[in-house]
Amino acid sequence: MADKRDYYDVLGVGKDASDDEVKKAYRKLARQYHPDVNKASDAETKFKEVKEAYDVLSDGQQRARYDQYGHIDPNQGMGGGFGGGDFGGGLGDIFDMFFGGGGGRRDPNAPQRGSDLQYTMTIEFKEAVFGKETDITIPRTETCDTCFGSGAKPGTKPDTCNVCKGSGQQEFVQNTPLGQMRNRRPCSHCNGSGKIIKEKCNTCSGAGKVKKQRKIHVRIPGGVDDGAQLRMTGEGEGGHRGGPAGDLYIIIRVKPHDFFVRENDDILCEIPLTFTQAALGDEIEIPTLTEKVKLKIPAGTQTGTFFRLKGKGVPRLRGTGQGDQHVRVIVVTPSKLSDEQKELLRQFSSHDGAHTHEQEQSFFDRMKRAFRGD
Ligand SMILES: [Zn+2]
Ligand SMILES: [Zn+2]
After folding, report:
1. Contact between residue 362 and residue 305 where contact means Cβ atoms under 8 Å apart
2. Is the pLDDT of residue 72 over 80?
3. 268 pairs with which residues across the strands?
4. Residue 346 burial by CB count (10 A; 0-12/13-18/19+): exposed, middle or buried?
5. With 0-12 CB in 10 A as exposed, 13-18 as middle and 19+ as buried, what is 140?
6. Residue 320 half-sphere exposure, CB side, CA atoms within 13 Å?
7. Alpha-carbon span 103 to 92, nearest angstrom
8. In three state form, how does the secondary structure of 236-268 look?
């Protein structure tokens, strides 16, 4: 810490610089060294140095202490980090810095956005295909309607805490082998809020928030698939001190169907065919998501053949049109035959012998060629 540069030198201002001059100098240097814009290897170190100097010199109390004690400021603690964790996170976005509050200290009374919530909803296969509107009930914390989040009885206002003067933080002095150390902790009088509520709101008992079972209307668009996530803006937990509510995320789980299988926007299904339907051809009825349609099975259809029913799939979630339905036919070998049927099949087999033999012949030829490596 001994080789630390003087904060005034870092910012390039005089010891008598006004708050405005300190701010201007900081903005100029931060713009110059912010790692988002400056790719030099030491930019980040320089930026941190500039920010640290600014954090101290822009805070009246800290600046006065720095003027008195220099870098041995007890507030710095032993690790050298500064000011109660303002530096803990990243460097902050450069836009926040120049268009936002200028990188000042965090205000304990600043509005804060509510947390996001997650809700898992299981729906039927066809509900995912065609969409669904429903109501769900979720437990969530909302801003109290009676006091609008202040926690004070209507007609009264919270007072500024007279212990911490509204900062929400209390300084305390610790004796250590290195001398007296000054540290901060949340004000115990106001629990870090900076405010004292004398007359508490009856609805929320001063919390400013209430637990509610809230009914929410959800519209699931047709075409959603298992694992889809719907975001409902502002339906999460209520914000704090006037901050916006968080969002509600609805995770969709889709139950499987007995007959249809979904693959993105397409539907797959299997239809059994009798041996005679496959051999002689037929016209059969196929269930689709909306209706029954007729499908022509040509004579001589092999098991495993796919037929496509165009536009009978799932409506596309984004864009227009629908997927297709793919029908796979499975030829079922008869297992229970009457004596008469068996006899007919024997007769069929003896007539069909030459053809079967022909097919087998070509199959064995191909296999022999494969063994020879052709
Ligand atoms: Zn306080
Ligand atoms: Zn209230």
Report:
1. no
2. no
3. 261, 326
4. exposed
5. buried
6. 0
7. 8
8. CCCCECCCCCCCEEEEEEECCCCCCEEECCEEE
The pLDDT tens digits of the residues spanning 259-278 come to 999 998 999 999 999 989 99
Model pTM above 0.90: no
CA 240 to centroid of ligand 2, rounded, Å: 12
pLDDT tens for 26-38 read 988 888 888 777 7
Encoded tokens for 197? 């509520």
pLDDT at 115: 92
pLDDT (mean) for 53-62: 87
Beta bridge partners of 306: 328
Distance in Å, CA 135 to ligand 2 centroid: 27
Categorize the per-residue pLDDT at 371 as very low, low, confident or very high, splitting at 50, 70 and 90. confident
Give Cβ neighbours of residue 124 (< 8 Å, ≥ 6 apart).
254, 255
What is the whole-number distance in angstroms between the Cα of residue 165 and the centre of ligand 1? 6
Distance 195 CA to ligand 1 centre (A): 6
Tell me the two tokens of residue 90: 């990243």
pLDDT of residue 202 exceeding 50, the answer is yes
Tell me the CA distances in angstroms from 8 to 39, 55, 239, one per residue in order: 25, 12, 39
What span, in angstroms and rounded, lies between the C-alpha atoms of 337 and 206? 82
Q: 137 and 235 in contact (C-beta within 8 Å)?
A: no
Rounded CA-CA distance 312/50 in Å is 64
